[in-house]
Amino acid sequence: MTAPRTSRYARDVAVVAFAQSDHLRRTDELSEVEMVMPVLHEVLAATGLKAGEIGFTCSGSSDYLAGRAFSFTMTLDGVGAWPPISESHVEMDGAWALYEAWVKIQTGEADTALVYSYGKSSPGSLRDVLTRQLDPYYLAPLWPDAVALAALQAQALIDAGETDESALAAIAARSRADAAANPHAQLRGAVPQGDYQVRPLRTGDCPPVGDGAAAVVLAAGDLARQLCERPAWITGIDHRIEAHGPGLRDLTDSPSTRIAARHAGVFDAPVDTAELHAPFSSQEVVLRKALGLGGIGTDTGTDTGTGPGTETGPGTVAVNPSGGALAANPLMAAGLIRIGEAAARIHRGASDRAVAHATSGPCLQQNLVAVLEGDPR
Predict the structure, then answer these.
(1) How confident is the model at residue 315 (pLDDT cuts 50, 70, 90)?
(2) What is the pTM of this model?
(3) What is the 3-state secondary structure (H, E, C) of the chain?
(4) What gap in Å lies between CA 95 and CA 253, rounded to an integer?
(5) Does pLDDT of 298 surpass 50?
(6) Which residues pair with 112 in a beta bridge?
(7) Distance CA 94, CA 120 (A)
(8) What percent of the chain has pLDDT over 90?
(9) Mean pLDDT, to the nearest integer, of 2-12?
(10) How many CB atoms lie within 10 A of CB 260?
(11) What integer is the mean pLDDT of 330-352?
(12) Do residues 148 and 202 lie in contact, with contact meaning Cβ atoms separated by under 8 Å?
């Protein structure tokens, strides 16, 4: 039995459905529309709603990946051209699209929202593309890619005595083991750590490059209970940003995550599930500290290899039971998937209070934190 759920907002809003594609290394035979459409159909079918009954639609994607401006307008074909819809788009991970949709519902302008995001990273070199998000005057001309910057962060953690290469390997192994029970994951089961990509990060410490899509449906109040047997109520949500330049930050900590977590109410009560958007094993170390989840090998229960839907013991936290971003990291969708995976565990009764995290930018620059709770059982 859990404590009664409390809301700090004008309206109670819940995730009532979640769907995602299988995440694959390449989807050359599929356009972005063809990749997104089955996911949209699945998530709407789960609620019984039709596209015309959705009050607001918001998507998250990146034109850089598609290589053309306003590419997101093409995927609207997957939603349908008729009847006309109220629609918006963010050039961010879909978690931020969910935030915009949540705000829309809070204002009373909509009672339901469809949020979807997608990314096809396979057509080009993702490591090169991501350099374009760096400071254009001092950092971007040096072409440091995401892996090199994450390696700087990992080395800073090692130098500070907060982790070592064997601990990072254990995080990667646990994530891939948990992903064995996730049919959508790109990498599942035992995966060798492999060679160094950029020391101290090996292949197993880095996320796979792949294509994928995800979608959720939000609903307010009693409507949420009509659409879902056990809604995942968003009892807190907040996002914060840190300095653009990695050299201006302490890479061993994430104050923006901690601040967002505090404003979202993470620390108000224990959580039993944490879906963390940690594309690199070293970033899980940083996020655990910021969210007060402890480290691997402590009594948090996070090194037990529990798979999706598996309940942990009293007082334990299942961290990334889906396998997390180390098992599947579709750019622009991986953060929304963390919220969706946390909500899905609440839907099926495997979790009562979960924290979901999404990030964007180099070395955890921008961070969104949401708390999701189920009705007391």
Answers:
(1) low
(2) 0.92
(3) CCCCCCCCCCCCEEEEEEEECCCECCCCCCCHHHHHHHHHHHHHHHHCCCHHHCCEEEEECCHHHHCCCCCHHHHHHHHCCCCCCCEEEECCCHHHHHHHHHHHHHCCCCCEEEEEEEEECCCCCHHHHHHHHCCCCCCHHHCCCHHHHHHHHHHHHHHCCCCCHHHHHHHHHHHHHHHHHCCCCCCCCCCCCCCEEECCEEHHHCCCCCEEEEEEEEEEHHHHHHHCCCCEEEEEEEEEECCCCHHHCCCCCCHHHHHHHHHHCHHHCCCCEEECCCCCHHHHHHHHHHHCCCCCCCCCCCCCCCCCCCCCCCCCCEECCCCHHHCCCCCCCHHHHHHHHHHHHHHCCCCCEEEEEEEECCCCCEEEEEEEECCCC
(4) 22
(5) no
(6) 219
(7) 14
(8) 76
(9) 71
(10) 25
(11) 97
(12) no
Q: Nearest CA to 205 among 166, 158, 238?
A: 166
pLDDT at 306: 32
What's the chain's length in residues? 377
The amino acid at residue 277 is H
Residue whose token pair is 């969706």: 340
Amino acid sitting at position 28:
D
Of residues 31 and 213, the one with the higher pLDDT is 213
Residue with tokens 């953060």: 335
Strands of 273-275's sheet in order across: 87-90, 56-60, 112-120, 211-220, 13-20, 232-241, 366-373, 353-360, 273-275, 318-319
